[in-house]
Amino acid sequence: MDQIRQLRPSLWHCLWALPFFLIGGGFFAYALFQGLAHVTDSLTQIVVPGGAELALRQGRYAVFLEEQSTVNGKIYSTTQSVDGLVCRVTPLHNGTAVAMEKPRTSASYSVSGRSGHSVLEFSIQQEGRYEFGCDYGENSKGPEVVVAVGSGVSEAIFRLVFEALAAFFGGCGFGAIVIIVVLLKRERATKFLKRSGQVPM
Prior knowledge:
Low-confidence stretches: none
Shape: elongated
Number of strands: 12
Largest sheet: 7 strands, antiparallel
């Protein structure tokens, strides 16, 4: 008569995967929400039509049009068309305008009641002070809106998403490995017991 024997390891060992899932999920939430809270820190908000003097270093900068924003306690909500709005960047030392162009990659953000998307890009070759301004031209009128200027925002967003996903899938991956190892050991144990004439339980 076949003997009945407890199958090892127990399925309860799969619970060792739980801490990995929790850690992965925790780091995912922390990286995502902590990063989102600071992704716009490098952006300078400017109400346009209007302008501001900026101290810029060498590098590539993005201009974001903010659909929802708050500046000096005033709430801005862009629902009207901004067709005809033209932005310029001019160095104070020589007055030669910096070339503006459409963004190579589209980037957007929405955090703490503030949202925007990239509309322009420009490159700074020489560190210094620059005048940034936007207007609708002499014969055009449009709504008052907020633009935000900064560098490295698109990279920060992509890095944030990558780190959050890496944390999530890393934790889930280790958890899955634990479960797979337990199941494989149970399968080998089942085959061994059957060959020995024993019935696994």
